[in-house]
Design a protein that fits this description.
The protein has about 160 residues and is an alpha/beta fold. It is about 45% helix and about 10% strand. The protein has one domain (about 5-155): 5'-nuclease (Rossmann fold, 3-Layer(aba) Sandwich), CATH 3.40.50. The protein has a 5-stranded parallel sheet. Strand 2 (about 30-35), helix 2 (about 35-45) and strand 3 (about 60) form a beta-alpha-beta unit. Helix 2 packs antiparallel against helix 4 (about 75-90). The longest helix has 12 residues, at about 35-45. The mean pLDDT is about 90.
Length: about 160
């Protein structure tokens, strides 16, 4: 669906920035929404000398209800608020890479996609010529994805 809302956590945004690919967000068919805790995490990176992470497709949205104590006790603030924001606004999809966050999001009925799924979608839509160089850059930048997951995503897009 064009312009589908997706609540995104800081991890995928930071990794896109590290591989100089934040511009992909502007071309994907999603509207990326993020909570205040994610903005705080991104701003903390700026204070440490990292670049400002911004996109025309990134929209800051306040929570209308506080994070569930059950969610907060298991996740960092950004992941917890991302899940709660999706629940509060009936947004079906979240973009998280952390395994614990993904499991909790799925357990409350959310559809989960990670950065590799976003990049796979970009490849499928012809927004990037090849995915493998990007997965190589991600692992060189310290992102941890199992070789099995990377191979599955590459196979799915025909690489």
């Amino acid at each position: 669906m064009e312009n589908e809302p997706v609540v995104i956590n800081s991890g995928p945004l930071i990794l896109l920035d590290r591989i100089d690919s934040l511009n992909i967000l502007d071309r994907l068919p999603y509207r990326f929404i993020y909570p205040p805790a994610v903005r705080m995490e991104l701003d903390a990176g700026i204070r440490l000398g990292r670049r400002i992470i911004a996109s025309n497709r990134l929209i800051l949205k306040e929570l209308s209800f506080p994070v569930s104590p059950m969610i907060r006790q298991f996740l960092d603030p950004g992941e917890a608020e991302a899940i709660q924001l999706a629940l509060n606004n009936r947004i079906a999809r979240v973009c998280l890479d952390d395994l614990r966050g993904r499991k909790i999001a799925e357990s409350v009925g959310l559809k989960v996609m990670g950065l590799l799924a976003l990049l796979g979608k970009a490849k499928t839509l012809g927004l990037i010529p090849r995915l493998k160089p990007m997965t190589d850059k991600l692992t060189a930048e310290g992102a941890w994805y199992s070789k099995r997951i990377i191979q599955a995503v590459l196979a799915e897009v025909g690489e």
